[in-house]
């Protein structure tokens, strides 16, 4: 029974702390530990190659690779052989592939392999891959023979 006369009694002003949350049994997802890759078109040079030049099968492979890249962290991207990430040194070799003027020359470019021939090239900064060029014929940084 509640005594209405004791409502303002300081002895009743006891705060009961909330229980501590239980620790999670499952490991943290990559987004909570280390952010997954985001693909950005901020520096995309559309004058070098356009998606309309790619065949439907190539576009499906490109979409699959982008989806895969966006599901891993930068560390995993570099280690995943199926994505074929590789850092480049020096300027692009292929004609028509000019570096965007608003992308600092201090930033090194890299590639992600789409298939045996096709690549996407850009700058990996933290967890963002800034796509610069589409390269369906592996012409930007051709393999050394």
Tell me what you see in this structure.
The chain is of the alpha+beta class and 145 residues long. It has one domain: YaeB-like fold, CATH 3.30.2310. Helices cover 17% and strands 17% of the residues. It has 3 helices and 5 strands; from the N terminus they run H-E-H-H-E-E-E-E. It has helices at 30-33, 56-69, 74-79, and strands at 38-40, 86-87, 110-113, 119-125, 128-135. The chain has a 5-stranded mixed beta sheet, covered by helices on one side. A hairpin with a 5-residue loop joins strand 3 and strand 4. The chain is globular. The model is unreliable at 9-16 (pLDDT under 50).
Task: Show the helix and strand layout.
Blueprint: H1 30-33, E1 38-40, H2 56-69, H3 74-79, E2 86-87, E3 110-113, E4 119-125, E5 128-135
Parallel strand pairs: 1-5
Antiparallel strand pairs: 2-3, 3-4, 4-5
């Amino acid at each position: 029974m509640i005594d209405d006369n004791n409502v303002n009694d300081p002895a009743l002003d006891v705060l009961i702390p909330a229980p501590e949350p239980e620790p999670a049994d499952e490991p943290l997802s990559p987004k909570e530990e280390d952010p997954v890759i985001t693909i950005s078109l901020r520096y995309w040079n559309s004058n070098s190659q356009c998606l309309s030049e790619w065949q439907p099968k190539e576009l499906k492979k490109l979409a699959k690779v982008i989806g895969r890249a966006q599901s891993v962290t930068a560390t995993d991207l570099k280690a995943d052989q199926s994505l074929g990430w590789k850092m480049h040194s020096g300027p692009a070799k292929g004609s028509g592939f000019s570096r965007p003027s608003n992308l600092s020359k201090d930033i090194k470019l890299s590639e992600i392999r789409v298939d045996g021939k096709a690549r996407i090239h850009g700058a990996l900064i933290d967890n963002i891959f800034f796509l610069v060029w589409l390269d369906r014929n592996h012409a930007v940084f051709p393999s050394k023979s």
